[in-house]
Fold each of these.
Amino acid sequence: MKKRMLSLALSLVMAAALTACGSKAPETTAAPADTKESGSSAEADGAAAKDVQKIIDRGVLKVGCKSDIPKFSLQNTATGEYEGFEDDLAYEIAGSIFGCSADEAKEKKLVEFQGVTAKTRGPLLENGEIDLVIATFTITPERKETYNFSTPYYTDAVGLLVNKDSGINSIEDLDGKIIGVAQSSTTKDGFKKYVDEKGLKVNPQFQEFDGYPALAQALATKQIDCFSVDRAILAGYVNDGNQILEDRFAEQDYGVAAAKDNKGLAEAVEKKVTSMLSDGSMKTLQDKWGLQ
Amino acid sequence: MIKGLFDGKRWSALFTAFPEYYIPGFLMTLRISLVGLAVSLVLGVIFGMFSTSKWKLPRIISRIYVEFIQNTPLALQVMCYYSVLPMLFSSSGFRIPKFVLGVIGVGVYHGAYISEVIRTGIEAIPKGQSEAAASQGFGYLETMYHIILPQTIKIIMPPLANQALNLVKNTSILAMVAGMDLMYFTDSWGADRGYFAQAYFTSALMYFIICFPLARLARYLEIRSMRLPVAKKLDIQADEEAAC
């Protein structure tokens, strides 16, 4: 019995040691190769903050982007590449961190994209899986307490997508109907505010879904009457059977988010975004992707 | 995520949101669990008896039901009830209430499993028991009710409790179709504020609050069914016979 216990304890210790090695190994092997390569770019950046230096040492900026929004950030199913306005913005930021141009950053694959949803982007950012979230992330006072947001890089409004045969033609028709919204979106509060401001008596029921495809499917099967999210996202789901209503409300600002602790990184991002806004390159980038 | 786990501000945010999110979610999950459990038990007993019946037709029906439900994922079934089933009734957007959807979803799913549990329980009783019952003039239902099912209970109680607990936990799949259950509200609040650690931890605790008493109840019933002294029942019968 004693022997068995001993062997059990031993195997446990060994297992622990093994896992410890496993998690450490990649870091130690990867570090020397990267430091040589990135030494010059770190100098160019001057005295980089600790968290920025970590990214430079790693040699890649990990960015969470949506993978299902045309024009903003869409993963090309053939190549696996992320293409869109937000992805180009990620390359721009990577360029400024690594001290090269955006095209070079793209060529050298200095950005590692990870597909995120409204639900996963927060936790992924907080546990350090990704450095930045550039995923139609609306800036709100509550979220500012949890994350570091940059200056808004794009302003969008919420739209309403309804089935053509539903007989809903304006926001007034939505009284008592079911509006589907995305989890962790600000649509619900925006809708209520808009209705109050206009003095309308519209009292719909809200249901939250995880992901836009689920919402589109619920609308197509008529389980919800209206699909309401940011217009940028809605545009990707318009087809012959549905239409976007005229109403637009809850103007909202998208910001680049970094974890609360990564102050240096947030500063670097802020610097890049504001400079892009002031020199008009942000506008050029938006025009390139056909965003108004 | 772990960093934020002991953040007092986040916990206080949770307590303010608790009545609005967690209470209705908890009640919905509890209601779906209880009614779903009743439905699955009824289905389980009916189809369990079907699959041990001596006629071929009920056996076939029961087999089809069990094999079909057991070999498809619950998520897919719920999705079907949610978006495909209403189309059979009308094309103009008939909606099944979320509560009914949940009861059908977990009830039908676990009904299939429970019917298998009951079938194996019945088959575990020696054939001599039903032969003896038949020799005493018991009909099929009477044999089942008085002789076979009471004996199967102590055999099937552990796997049955297993199913009941899984049923409670599987109600969480409703969150996928905005089922207004505990998981739905957890996701909703967690995603809203970004305080996932608090949201999920509390949710886990509330599922535990439902599951733990259920597990204890099943254990109690199991012990009681084992303790049931057979001799005592015989005594009463003997007395009755003597009285006759």
Amino acid sequence: MATAASPHPAFDFVEEKNGIRELRLRANGLQVLLLPNRIAPVATFCVVYRVGSRHEAVGHTGATHLLEHMMFKGTAEFNRDRGTQIAATLEAVGARFNATTWFDRTNYFETVPSDQIDLAMRIEASRMRGSFIRDGDRIPEMTVVRNEFERGENSPFQVLYKDSFAVAFREHPYHHPTIGWKSDIEGMSTARLKEFYDTFYHPDNATAILIGDFEEAEALRRLDGHFGSIPRSHRPIPRTYTDEPPQQGERRFVVKRAGQIGWVALSFRSVAAAHPDAYPMAVLANILGSGMTSRLYQALVEPSLSISVSAISWQLRDPSLFSVFTAIAPGTDHARAEKIVRDELARVVREGVTEDEVKKAQNQIEADVIFERDTTDQVAGSLTEAIAVADWRWYVDYLENVQRVTAADVLRAARTYFHEDFSTVGWFVPRIEAEVAA
Amino acid sequence: MSSRFAENTARLEGENGATFLALENHFNPTLALSGTLRAGSAHSPASNPVLAALTAQMLEKGTRRRTKLELAGELENRGISISFSASGGDPDTMDISLACLSRDRVLAFEALVEMLTEPVFPAEELAREKERLVGAVRQLSDQTGWRASTAASRLIYPAGHPYCAETAEEIIAAIEATTTAELADFHERFYRASSLILAVVGDVDRAAVVQELAGLLGPMRTGAAAAIDVPPIHRPASARERVRMKEKVNADVLLAHDSGLTRTAADFLPTTLGVAALGQSTLSSRLGLRVRDTEGLTYGINARMSAGRFSGPFAISLTVAPANLDRAVQSARAVLGEFLEGGITEKETLDEKRSRAGKFKVDLASNGGIAGALDMAETYGFGVGYLDAFPASVEKITVEEVNAAVRRHIHPEMLVEVAAGEV
């Protein structure tokens, strides 16, 4: 029988916070998060797997991502031969759907009219353990993914961010990009992908999220019906244990490639998303790089030395990076742009930031968080990241943690992490060559 | 037929001709505004093709009351975003968007109105913006997608047509030659209330908010937007161009021609249903099923129609490794040929109609989505009731209407073919 706290006998109620209810499917350990939001007659259903490129090694880098592509190739119930291809089935109800992979996680999501929630659940349950992973599908899909890789290589920003991680991390798997190395994408066997699928795609390594216009008892009944019979993994899900040792000196790299615009990237080894210093670093990223009044915009874009600048405090499960990227204006040399970025960061280390700057950053982050709630899929996306880096409560508590940050916290964090020995500098140097139009 | 939108939307025409729409949604303490003004790139004079875009971009660079940094400081302090763009979807319009927490409504509206009606185009800000834009254009010219679409538009449309794009060199020359007097003159001539539409959705009192906007914009000058002299399109035989860009390991490819369809044409909706079956989804439409799913030649392949007040292009776009270019193009052309010859099937028509009805709900599930739809309905003269009637309008379309429409407007023999990359 359902207890007062557990609205359905198949589920254990775990906790409710800020309107989000966590339950666990007793039969197999599937974590379930429910957030009613009746802004419109739609809902987002999302399944997050705790598997990302952090679980890969040389030879099968990109497995998480290639597997995510293969998960659209079909199951016994949903496949092209039966006229029930997953994408076509979702398109036919007007769903907005996709899947994404990142360092720490993979997610699959569908935003559907609320009378189609059951369809979204059926598809996700079907491909949790029943996905075709066939050689005949992998071969054309490999070239699809290779074209995705090639598209990324056309972008100086993507080249710089991938190389910044590759140079800053030598031992930890954040070293390689989520899309993988090109030769691994090409060489990975179907059997290796199948093994990856069989290792990580289990209900006890997943979270099902439902946000939007639904009735809880009905949603739980459907979740139990679709996912309840899937067994939990018969072996423990492997965890990543490789740590990146401390960096002991600046690292630099240069990419010279045909192009029009130069770029500079400056990154520092930083903290994990769940570390208390992640919040002052997020505030600092905002102060340095968000909006026209931000410090780096004023130092670089306002005097026309750069075209754009951004500061990113990467929020990942393990310690990662704080990065600044700037696309420099024609006529500005890389060394000058790098010096200006360094000078601005040194100024923070020397003098700190003002309470007004902290307040502005907090207001912007608060507005962003509130705007996000306008759409169910944005909340699903944020919960995905929270689950990947820590736990769903990380999302719920984020704003409060940001609002606790003081100027003194920012100063202390900057002094801890903005040390030259922890830095990685990258330059994208365009080689401007005559182009031929024929 | 539901009349949810018609009944719940407040609509007010100001004395100067501006139109205001508002719909309440109190779920979240936010609001979104979407607007248009007939001051888009199509209104730039032949002597300066970037004038409309630059005027829109300079609105935030200082007003009679506040400097650029005073404005930015006020808005950024509260997480308010306001943007103006004359480089977006319909070349006829300059697009306006605003998002803020509802508690900041008054302040956000005042800033919006100030930027829209009282810009001063300071010379030093123009000089700065020119330098930044020249760099930004060079950055664009390094992108295979931008190069392919620019080249295709120049093969399809004559110079001076709203859909004919300038080259990077032409844009840079025009930016560098622009004066503050030209910006002020363009603003004077085209920023007129009679073509202004603003739609607000969110945590507001709808009756009060349209009055509030009408009051704030009351002093805005009236007057109609000038008619645009659109040069005729001499439908060319197919043409082919390769834009060689070294070390671009992915190529962007476009197969396109003018569709002859405007947004208000009766054939627009049935044609877009057909185009959706052909290439809306890279995973499940006909092009995607063949060129991506079966042959593995591309990460992304789509077909789309662009149309506004002027007829725009029908286009198939794909990305491809240069070595696979010819095979992929041949395959895409074959799919298009089969589609036109055999036509859309009953099942595809049903699926696309269901899909469109579902997407309608999904797209209108946010304040921004609804505001954009209200703005669009008003811009093209459909009226708010269009949103209520839309599902039924889609439902009654037949397979014969779709096939007749796509055959009238899609012509493989007229496609220009452009590829940009290491090709």
Amino acid sequence: MSSLLEMRSVSKIFGSGETATHALTDFSHIVDEDKPSITAIAGESGSGKSTAARLILGFEKPTTGQVLYRGKDLQSISGSERRQFRQEVQAIFQDPFGVYNPFYRVDRLLHTPIKSFKLAKNKAEANEKIRVAMRTVGLNPDEVLGRYPHQLSGGQRQRITIARALLLQPRLILADEPVSMVDASLRASILDSLLTLNREFRISFMYITHDLTTAYQIAERLMVLFRGTLVESGPVADVVRAPKHPYTQLLVSSIPSPDPTKPWGQDAASAKDPAETFGTTGCPFASRCAHVMPECRSTVPPKFQVGRAAVACFLYKDRPLAGEPTANSQQVLLQTR
Amino acid sequence: MTNGNALDVRDLYVQFNTRAGVVRAVDGVSFSLKPGERLGLVGESGSGKSTIAMALLRMIKPPGVINGGSILLGGSTEITKVTDKEMRAIRFARIALIPQGAMNSLNPVRRIRDQFLDSMRAHGVKLKSDEAKERIATLLTSVGLRPDVANKFPHELSGGMKQRVCIAMAVSLKPSVIIADEPTSALDVVVQRQIMETIGNVQEEIGAAVILIGHDMGLMAQFVDRLGVMYGGKLVEDGETKEAFRSPQHPYTQVLIDSLPSFDEEPRLVKIPGQMHSPLAPPPGCVFHPRCPKRFAACDSIVPVLRPVQGHQRVACLLYASSYPAQPQLEPVS
């Protein structure tokens, strides 16, 4: 086993002193090169999930900790390694409008990476590659090529960005809310394209979302962030069916059930205004938590092993401490599915 | 002459005369709304659900035009006929909108209090300054905000707080109809639930009817009493929410409900086949037939009309039209 990408106790603090924002705190995660995986990172706005994405892509420098690409610190790799990183790690973003220059035909978005990375010897080969990639993600090249972004639907535009990522034959695709701006009816087919890439092309995904239902549909593992802290992680079915951390419980119970006979649960924590509760020490969720204990306000809870999930909550203090993710524990978790 | 309904929409047509051709965004839609009732309108982008909202507020802008039908507010006011001046008085006071993007709906350079005062003054509400202050404080409290939010600028508030301010403004003149156009689409689930509870509470307090527009079937199941399903500018199904979820009649509603994920089952992805037609070239016959898993010969030639099937449900589908010439090839679902 070898790790393609590893986040080792990564923290990111914006600003300093009294006004410092702890966007991400002590975050660790390993993407194994040999075992293509889909990991979902979920959380509300401001939970640090997009900061995690920017750190992985090397857009931000960790305040402490390291992001390692093939065992080397992303901040100090050589030019050729960086080039390889830029090819092997791709990103798909939320807004399928924002990535296009409205003045150019969509073809340009696909030809540019081929040129930059010299993926084709001639125009004919480039065109063939583009057509194959488009068909893989469920697009008909004849309907789409030669058009301008405004002539295509949101779903088509998002698929083109997936095709673009696929062209580079990446090992990891970071997908930041890729379906939050497309219609429910298109959502399933785009997620299905991502699953195809995972299974047939052995591409790993880090799927960043605020929507636990789509995470459940495609991911193997789920990591739940709250205010920059990983509060719960484990196999996705375990986490969404039997959430352990009070915040995860609140998240799951807030999802409107598509069954009118199952009314929304009325949790006490939901009544509190999140903007008014900003704890600085201890558990970040303490001020909204219905089960809060004195130690929650003073000490940051470590991660306890509860079943197959790791939960940062003192409710589980009688359980053994969860180990940091190692190559081994990752494999065990993946095999459990 | 009133029938007691808060709103009666009859054969409403809205079209956009674009250079590329005519788009019939709302194509003969009829429904009624009782006082205090919660109606949901669901559909994918391009189904016409937001255009209906704009038509009810008479805010359709050229090249769009309401080119047929009637919108009767409170049994007496014909929205399609009143003058622009009268309409300005009706908006907010009798029919109000909770907009989709709360962040873009507030004036960034004015304090929240001044924005409340603007809408009150525009509708001839004259209050002494301490009375106004108290009124605004009451409104903000009713949506779960602290009264001192009145002194803040929009950028000092979170997305959820801004949406609550918009709700407080929408109910400030006690309208009889509130239209909420995807009020929580930019918010996460925890805040979403708080906002929907807030809308529900203030709505019950003032006894207004609500039209919730969106595409989240889960939200509809939790919030509305009655569900209208839109496709291609038409209302294809209309009925009580519980019935619609228990036994959806239209094949489109069936796919919509079947595609909903549930944590109780193994993960699966149910795709709705095909894409919505170009709005410039709707298919002949039933607008959904090119994507319909249950279509049969007559579907591409006969336009189904909305008619009662069972209980309070109405559906526009030839599967349920025994009087139409061709008989269905498939058994109707029970």
